[in-house]
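Practice problem: predict the structure.
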Amino acid sequence: MKVTPLGLLCEPGGFYVDPSRPVERAVVSHGHADHARPGHGAVLATPETLAIMRARFGEDRAGDEQQAMAYGESVTCNGVRITLAPAGHVLGSAQVVLEWQGSRIVVSGDYKRRRDPTCAPFLPVECDVFVTEATFALPVFRHPPDSHEIRRLLDSVALFPERAHVVGAYALGKTQRIIALLREAGWDRPVYLHGAVEKLCTLYESLGVRLGELLPVPKGLKRGHPPILAGEIVLAPPSAEATPWARRLADPVTCAASGWMTVRQRAKLRGVELPLIISDHADWDELLETIEEVRAPEVWVTHGRDDALVHALGLRGVRGRALHLVGRGDEEDEGAPEAPPTEEEADAARRGAPS
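Answer:
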């Protein structure tokens, strides 16, 4: 594998993994915008990822040639054997397993280790080189159980029945996961959706993920109409909470579902009243556990807090290498990316988060 301005290039195979700009041949790990780009010549991905790309980019921009490959299936390209394994990040997300001349590299894409009712769980694959993300690679990031955070949300709804609860979450993956977790926790009432998240919820359902009754937030209300959706749960992109759209709702409780909500300063600056620590990435302990499970003597880190993770790997006798790939970590929030923490925020997390 070679690091290039376009991303990771498999030189003998003649293809890129998650390239940052259009290329002739690409293997795409999942549908988030910092990994899946429009305009490639040929794209290999899971059927779900290809469906997500078509929904987001249009049929003619998701790859001139689209090759769907299920988990566990393999194809050989110029002597390089390609297999896709579940990554547990979002629906269809995959690790890219590459084998050539007796060696194996696994490119994880983004991944999480928590159970997620909307996608297949992460599958550790032993390898010679493991290419990992490091989004939450600081010891302060130890995410609580998802059920605990969902219970906090439901308790707040019960405590403030006169208010709407608006949960800011990524349109792809996080929104659908929160809905599924709410259903498991016993919420059988409708979940209301901002228009920007409806399309992907519909796609998830068409791909077999059951989300229960979903309704759009009512539009076209006349001036002076009483606030709506008191006691209800609304899912929206994080950026929507600060727009006039939210004013129609009954005294909304601003919530945000993100691993970054560990950083209390970030929650405060964003005006988040109820921060929910629900992440679609592995936390610090899960990163280290994963690296131990795959038994790779060499680990490459694509983005995030690579310095802390590389240091921790060195203490464990594992060779670490920071790749500094361009464009990684900028997952979309309908045009408002949620960036990694600044140094000031990271310092605040170190001081204020539980260890």
